[in-house]
Amino acid sequence: MSRANRDVGGYRGRRTITDILTFIAVTLAVIVILVLAGLFFAQRYIVYTDDGPKLELPPFLQMFRREEAGPGTSASLPDPGSVSVVIEPDSSQTEPQPEQSAGCALELTVDDVVNGTAAAKLEEGDAQALILDVKEASGQLAWYSDLFTADWAEVNAPRTNNDALKEWNAGEVYTIARVCCFRDDSVPYSMNKLALRKGSYNWRDELGLRWLSPAQEEAQAYIAGLCAELAYLGFDEIVLEQFFFPVQGNVDNINQGDSYNPARFTAELEEFLTQVQAAVEPYGTKLSLRVDEDVLTSEGLALSGVTPQLLEQYACRIWTTHDGLYALSIPPHEGYEQERMVEIVAQAVQDSEIFQAVIPRQ
């Protein structure tokens, strides 16, 4: 009885071929249904082009497609014709600046500054810099100096010139002061002890003008003091002219001694230039030296006390002349630098000689 009960429940052996074929048929049917459904669904996203049909998926499927493409790859490339490239300038690289041309400097009078016509004349002459002759060979000054020597020799200009010069120099125009140093026809007349002497008289050069002795400490201090006042008035550059011992005229007639000792010419010039340099340095004023052709000859160098080394050490710029005119070309000498020369060309304006200078860049 109990055995009969254990046989109830049917046969549970291996599946038959019929069961397997039935499973395959059902699976294929499901696949076919899914494919048909997919084609039906995707039909709206099929776009027909000249290159054939293309599938354009909706945005949410495109997102998954890009993610599947992986980093560093692109699922699709844009049309090259639609790509715009904007190149930002590199702030670390600046455009090359065009080389600046040399400026033009015009020589006018201090009266032009005082009466207010200097600016218009510079504009008319297309000049960017102004040259003023502030101490002439006569010894007269274009400003009022507080130095005792200037007052004693009566070479001062009106004190109002100082205010006009200071106001002008506070502007943007580069202004150069020309100072004729030891060729001075006034101070030696009033103070013989400072003069180069011929016998009992003041020595005179080829122009009939008197000279201060470059060896006299008081004469050196006078010129250095004048340059300090000019620097205080705001001049950008001071050009020293005739800052050496004379090379023209009958120099053999000059009394020799402490005031004129050829063995000490260069040393005494160095002492003088050191004083002037120290006087203008606090104001940032440039110091330039003018040497003409007659000084640059072998004889001229010996008579003047000038050496190429002095020019190299003390001159911010070297002014020179050639054939009676200022010019850039001079005979080469050791220690001269061509770019430090200043070219000035003479012109005739309103029946007076002025100068137009080419100022090289520093």
Task: Name the descriptors.
13 helices, 362 residues, elongated, 14 strands, alpha/beta, two-stranded antiparallel ribbon, eight-stranded mixed barrel, 34% helix
Characterization of the model:
- The chain is of the alpha/beta class and 362 residues long.
- It contains 13 helices and 14 strands.
- The strands form 4 sheets. It has an 8-stranded mixed β-barrel with strand order 3-4-5-8-9-10-13-14. Strands 1-2 form a two-stranded antiparallel ribbon.
- Helix 9 runs parallel beside helix 10 (265-280).
- The N and C termini lie far apart (129 Å).
Number of strands: 14
Q: Stretches where pLDDT falls below 50 for ≥5 residues?
A: 1-13, 62-94, 96-102, 323-339, 347-353
Helical content stands at 25-40%
User: How does the helix and strand content classify structurally?
Assistant: alpha/beta
- Strand order within the widest sheet? 3-4-5-8-9-10-13-14
- Taken from the alpha-carbon principal axes, the silhouette is elongated
Q: Let me know the largest β-sheet.
A: 8 strands, mixed, barrel
Strand content: 15-25%
Radius of gyration: 47 Å
Report mean pLDDT, rounded to a whole number. Answer: 77
Distance between the termini: 129 Å
Instruction: Name the helix and strand elements from N-terminus to C-terminus, one letter apiece.
Output: HHEEHEHHEHHEHEEHEHEHHHEEEEE
